[in-house]
Specification:
heterodimer, A: 350 residues, ABC transporter involved in vitamin B12 uptake, BtuC, 1% strand, globular, disordered N terminus, B: alpha/beta, Rossmann fold, six-stranded mixed sheet, 10 helices, 37% helix, 22% strand
Chain lengths: 350, 278
């Protein structure tokens, strides 16, 4: 770095740069260098491992099963990434998805039953899903910031209440009378069957989220709140307002996930949005290298985390392993992810 | 607009340096008149008249509970005085929030530094005052990283803070380097006054000496520094003027060349009586 004008009295410079930074052992340096990419290594290893055991892993059917499974979690996990970066947690992402899907599906089927045309029913139904998701996120954010209740407690409460709400909406029943658009959204494919709309939408959402976090003022402030909330407040950032927006984004992602899962299943189901959805979304973010204390994590990491979970799901089935092992494997990977993260933080290499 | 203010701040530096040097000359940059702060029956501050002139380093000392932090928090906009008024450049101001105070060119270095360890150095310098691209990208808050990185390098150069790269995360810096970043940020934005609350409390002896140098450097650039510290030898060595608070009142205002550390201690403990600066 150019230091014009400081040559005469270098002792004035505050902070000696080099020597204090470089106290790292080789192992720590190695961990520092591979950084978050060790998870990418795990993902590639899993794909190769399962591909060797079960060559069906590389077929179109396996890909479609993996990707459609991953789509839902990826979108939920993208929303969850924003929340976890602020040091919060949203346990209600899955439940919000279930509720929004049911609410939107009811709008669609009721409109169709009352003689509305396909376009109207589609637009209003989809709008309902997005608005319902955002409204729940807004409520979460408002309760967390204004009543100063920890996010874990608030979203645990809303998750439970919303699951009940989903049942109440249609007495626990299923809604199957959806618009044609929803059917084709879930079943149309292109690139001779290798790609479909939900996958494209999920990837676009992930890319937009990644750019927002890494390239915009909003993203920088999101990281800063998780990193040091007091510092953020003193910098003049309206922390409460920002947090509410973050929970609204999480709700919006649940709404988008609701559209895609409703399209995939061609129905809205009261059993959609279980506690497992929440946990897998959070697991994706954590495996992806985000810190539960906030301030650290990326959408790319979350993408890799989601992919690992989805590949495990397909791979274990194809390898004829009992699906129960999936949960065991994901649990082990979560613990490993956090353990490796700890070592890296301790080493100061991250 | 953000850059504009920095430039005007740079312009101010030159003029102030020319007229500066003598500490109590010229019009005060910041002045408080009759500031009192009461919590119920507790008088934290009593009719405090306090002024800061261009280019000087003013120390505020006093025992715990003497009112140092209350005074600094009022100037920083974090507390509101019960009575009294604050003037910046001769104009009365009413700070509702710390942001108002910062907008008036008053920067504070907090004891805990108020840095985000997961963000880079340049991001910390610009947190809350980010530069965005012009045009449509700016409307969605797209950051102009290049501009901020360049400016951050300049800001830190100006304060002679040596850090190998402004892209480093603050969490990877040593205590002294973090301190330097916090001070550098205050100097970069503080066009009028830099307030420092116990800036060396967490530092080793060598780093304390560096911060002391830095404080002098800031003042010679024309921006006055208000230093709150328990470290009397440092205050004595660095400050042009030392104000002693005792039970919410200014009980002494001395120049270090006129008063020994022991004398200052006697004012702090209340065993000596009032003495004015001249």
């Amino acid at each position: 770095m150019a230091l014009a004008g400081t040559k005469k009295k270098p002792e004035v410079g505050v902070g000696v740069a080099r020597d204090e930074e470089a106290k790292e052992s080789l192992f720590q340096e190695f961990l520092g260098r591979i950084g978050q990419f060790w998870t990418l290594g795990v993902l590639v290893a899993l794909i190769i491992l399962f591909g060797t055991i079960a060559p069906d892993m590389y077929t179109e059917a396996a890909w479609n099963s993996t990707s459609s499974y991953a789509v839902e979690y990826l979108i939920l996990a993208v929303g969850e990434t924003f929340v976890i970066l602020t040091g919060g947690i949203d346990l209600a992402v899955g439940a919000t998805m279930g509720f929004s899907g049911m609410a939107g599906a009811l709008v669609m089927s009721n409109l169709l039953a009352n003689g509305a045309n396909q376009t109207e029913a589609t637009i209003l139904g989809i709008a309902m899903m997005l608005v319902a998701g955002m409204a729940i996120g807004f409520a979460n954010g408002l309760i967390i910031t204004k009543l100063k209740i920890p996010p874990f407690i608030v979203t645990l409460g809303t998750m439970t209440a919303i699951m009940g709400g989903t049942d109440l909406l249609n007495n626990g029943g299923e809604v199957t009378n959806l618009t044609n658009f929803m059917g084709s959204l879930g079943s149309d494919t292109f690139l001779s069957g290798w790609l479909n709309y939900p996958v494209v939408i999920a990837l676009v959402a992930a890319v937009l989220a990644s750019l927002t976090l890494s390239r915009t003022k909003f993203g920088m402030r999101t990281y800063s709140i998780g990193s040091n909330e007091i510092a953020a407040r003193r910098s003049g950032i309206h922390v409460d307002r920002h947090l509410i927006r973050v929970y609204v984004i999480s709700g919006l992602m649940s709404g988008i996930a609701a559209i895609l899962i409703t399209a995939n299943l061609s129905s809205a189901n009261a059993t959609t949005g279980t506690a497992n959805d929440n946990l897998y979304a959070i697991a994706s973010v954590i495996i992806g290298g985000a810190s539960l204390f906030g301030g650290r994590g990326t959408i790319l990491g979350t993408f890799i985390g989601t992919s690992i979970i989805a590949v495990l799901e397909t791979g274990l089935v194809l390898a004829n392993v009992a699906p129960f092992w999936q949960e065991v494997a994901i649990g082990a990977i979560i613990v490993c992810a956090v353990a490796i993260d700890r070592i890296r933080v301790k080493a100061g290499t991250d | 607009m953000v850059l504009g203010r920095r430039e005007s701040c740079g312009g101010k530096l030159v003029t102030v340096t020319e007229s500066g040097g003598g500490s109590s000359h010229g019009a005060p940059i910041i002045e408080t008149k009759g500031i009192s702060k009461q919590w119920g029956s507790v008088h934290a501050l009593h009719e405090v008249d306090f002024a800061v002139y261009p280019g000087e380093v003013v120390g505020i000392v006093g025992d715990n509970g003497a009112g140092k932090s209350t005074l600094i928090n009022i100037i920083a906009g974090a507390l509101h005085p019960t009575t009294g008024s604050i003037f910046v450049d001769g104009k009365e101001v009413h700070f509702k929030t710390p942001t108002d105070s910062r907008d008036a060119g008053i920067e504070t270095v907090y004891q805990d530094l108020a840095l985000a360890p997961d963000l880079s150095i340049w991001a910390n310098l610009f947190l809350g005052r980010e530069i965005t691209k012009s045009g449509p990208l700016g409307w969605i808050g797209w950051l102009d990283r290049k501009a901020m990185i360049e400016q951050a390098v300049k800001d830190l150069d100006r304060t002679q803070i040596r850090i190998s790269s402004v892209n480093q995360r603050v969490g990877r810096l040593s205590g002294g380097q973090r301190q330097a970043v916090a001070v550098g940020r205050a100097i970069a934005w503080g066009s009028h006054v830099v307030l420092m609350d116990e800036p060396t409390a967490a530092l080793g002896v060598e780093q304390q000496a560096r911060v002391a140098e830095l404080i002098r450097t800031v003042a010679t650039h024309g921006v006055p520094v208000v230093l709150i510290s328990h470290n009397l030898p440092q205050v004595h060595a660095v400050c042009d003027r030392i104000i002693v608070l005792f039970r919410g009142r200014i009980v002494a205002e001395v120049r270090p060349q006129d008063a020994s550390i022991d004398e200052i201690v006697s004012y702090i403990t209340g065993s000596s009586t009032v003495k004015a600066a001249e």
